[in-house]
Amino acid sequence: MKLKEVTPVLEALAPLHLAEEWDNVGLIAGDYEMPIKKIMLTIDMTQSVFEEAKKQNIDLILAYHPPVWEPLKTIIAGRGAAPLLHEAIRRNIAIYALHTALDAVRGGVNDVLAEIVGIAESEVLAPSKGQTGKMCKLAVFLPESDLAQVSEAIFTVGAGRIGDYQQCSFRCRGTGTFQGGGVTHPTIGQAGQFEQADELRLEVIVPVDKIAPVVKAMVQAHSYEEVAYDIYPLMEGPKDQGLGRFGDLSQAISVDDLVAKIKKKLKINSVGIIGPRRGRIKRAAVCAGSGGTMFRDVIKKNCDFYLTGELKHHHALEVQEAGLTTVCVGHSHSERIVLPVIAKQLRQKCQSVEVFISKKDRDPINWG
Fold this sequence. Notes:
Udp-n-acetylmuramoylalanyl-d-glutamate--2,6- Diaminopimelate Ligase, Chain: A, domain 1; Alpha-Beta Plaits; about 25% strand
């Protein structure tokens, strides 16, 4: 498979428009035309992970955390904010990041954590807000003879993808009118004459960050001298996707038993526990990574247990004063559990590609 065939699969697993505004998800480095035979999954792209990728001849590193957070002014070997990026580009290793897109999507990391805790039917703790600027609709007018080549051109560069579906479009017939000036060369009719032509209106959804290459491909494939098209910004409707999950447990459980279950599932020996350890847990919430901005929502949902990766000190104090039993398992420990899930899905959808999970990827903190 080529990278341009793999990225739609990744975008379906973790739609980029679900990511937080501050995040940097999607393709970080790579050539869409490069062949992909081996993919390695990791939470962080560290030097040891990169060395492992080189030894295994990995073509695409699929990292949970983006290795580049802020705009770079220079990319120099061994220097600056992203020395590994220089070597990855030089060695033709593509890099793709998932992060909060995978947090928000149904079936992502937060749903995996909810299942571990035992939430029966989880709800989204902080639903993704409808936002303009993420997606747009492109409508182009063309003769039927252009339909196949224009459709193929724009689908190839990212248009027409809705969830796990590709090549999505709407087509309707109509009549176009025009009159070319004296120096024009119309595809249909003659210059200087009023013309009526049977045309199709082709509509497709396009991510905003891909509209430029899509329009370029469309114009190049179109037979008209002047291509008529419209671009409309779209607002996403409310969906059952977003950060965090909460809900009633399928069966009440003691704090100690739930903590033991979490340790076993996450394969960790130590956790941080804040708040009371007595009583039985009936309603819980989870949030992968740094969950400090979410705990007030957890309290509002009347949860008596909260699982997250980490909290800042002042958030931990607030949780303690609120009497909310909270377990911090470590930032990356709360996220690494999703890698086998994604690896399984990739093996099913990209059967010609070998998929590995890094053995060198680990939490930077040594837990005693």
